[in-house]
Amino acid sequence: MTAPQWSTPTVVPPALFDKPPNTIAAPVTLLDSALVRLLPAVPKPVVQLFSSRYIAGATLAEAVECVRGLNDGGKMATVDVLGEEITHEDETRAIAQAYDDVFAAIDEAGLDSNVSVKLTALGLDLSYELCRENLLEVVRTAAGYGNFVRIDMEDSSTTDDTLRLYRELREDGHDNLGVVLQARLRRTLDDVQALADLRPSVRICKGIYLEPGTIAFTDFEAVRANFVRCLDALLEAGCYIGVATHDEWLIGESLARISQRGLGPLAVTSSSLRDIGCASTSPSVSTGTATRCGGCKRTRRWRGQSRRRLQAASSG
Ligand SMILES: Cc1cc2nc3c(=O)[nH]c(=O)nc-3n(C[C@H](O)[C@H](O)[C@H](O)COP(=O)(O)OP(=O)(O)OC[C@H]3O[C@@H](n4cnc5c(N)ncnc54)[C@H](O)[C@@H]3O)c2cc1C
After folding, report:
1. pLDDT at residue 299 greater than cutoff 50
2. For the chain, how are helix, strand and coil distributed in percent, rounded to 5?
3. Residue 104 CA to its chain's centroid (Å)
4. Which residue spans within 12-148 are E strands per DSSP?
5. Is the dihedral of CA 161, 162, 163, 166 positive or negative?
6. Residues 95 and 192 in one domain
7. Are 181 and 243 contacting, i.e. CB atoms less than 8 angstroms apart?
8. Which of 154, 246, 249 has the most ligand 1 atoms within 8 A of CB, as the residue to mutate?
9. Which of 117, 41, 53 is nearest to 83 (CA)?
10. In this structure, which residue's CA is closest to atom 43 in ligand 1?
11. Per-residue confidence at 203, pLDDT binned at 50, 70, 90?
12. What contacts 244, CB < 8 A, 6 or more positions away?
């Protein structure tokens, strides 16, 4: 495979191009593909077994231990209380309140971790205002602990509301709030330009939701190319950027672009999900760049998240 036109070949270890794009380790692909197809019929303990690769624990205590392990390995972490497919207001309030315990635990254990939130877990599908209230509660609690909240980006039906809510809270002075943008979406470069005046803290990722070609790039190299375009635009806008990818070519490109601009090592955070993902970003630790790994607290609603991770892995 040859490097794409827009690459900076000198910074990419040639070995990275030996692997075909858009693949994942064979055992994972075969096993996970089968599991995804069968998921509705698979007993819960079996799904839990496989999802444990992606999800840190069922309890806060387990998440704390997971984060402590990551911190001991020189990695920062982010904790996500999973709770999608919410149907009642009370459930959304419970999720928001659960973050109080997370912040308290992070503080008490002296962990290097912030949190991520999913707006659907905070009620976005029920009511924008309800979601706004819940998010505000989480953000204010975080501020009380000197901590930070990042809004995960979900499927494209939520993008407008997510970016609107992000802007509203930032304009109200809540600076301890970041957002995620997905390189897969065709709109993302425009979103970067539109957000630039806020100098947002952005986690940039490819996007885990498979979206139609009308709104998303579906070609592997086109997603990569858009990732780099968006990264450049974010750097141009002076943003703090978290690079959330296991794609070593993209990690190399990102680190090269940061160093070309003479930015300090903490200007970018290579993000990874726990377990095998952490291993894939370890080169960035050796360059002095902090690595952020995702640790998640699992609630009883972890199944959708597990399914999506497995679907993403099996589709490459
Ligand atoms: C910290 C973090 C936060 C994220 N937040 C969001 C979000 O808010 N919204 C969203 O839509 N998506 C999010 N994602 C998912 C992301 O968008 C991608 O779907 C996911 O990271 C897989 O794409 P990739 O960039 O790693 O590259 P891919 O092209 O999928 O994979 C590149 C290579 O990495 C390896 N790989 C792939 N997946 C994994 C894995 N799970 N563990 C280890 N190695 C792997 C494979 O060998 C593959 O060949 C997040 C990912 C991470 C790591």
Report:
1. no
2. 55, 15, 30
3. 22
4. 75-81, 113-117
5. positive
6. yes
7. no
8. 246
9. 117
10. 277
11. very high
12. 180, 203, 204, 205, 271, 272
- Pick the atom of ligand 1 nearest to 21's CA: 49
The count of domains in the chain is 2
Which residues, at least 6 apart from 303, have a Cβ–Cβ distance to it below 8 Å?
A: 44, 47, 51
CA of 246 to the centre of ligand 1 (A): 5
Expressed as residue numbers, the domain containing 314 is 23-53+301-316
Average pLDDT of span 220-245: 93
Q: Rounded to an integer, what distance in angstroms lies between the CA atom of residue 38 and that of residue 23?
A: 21
Flag whether 18 is in a domain: no
Distance, in Å, from the CA atom of 232 to the CA atom of 65, rounded to the nearest integer, reads 36
pTM of the model: 0.77
In a domain, 226, yes or no: yes
Model confidence pLDDT, tens digit, residues 140-194: 999 999 999 999 999 999 999 999 999 999 999 999 999 999 999 999 999 999 9
Residue nearest to atom 27 of ligand 1 (CA): 247
Token pair listed for 119: 């707006």
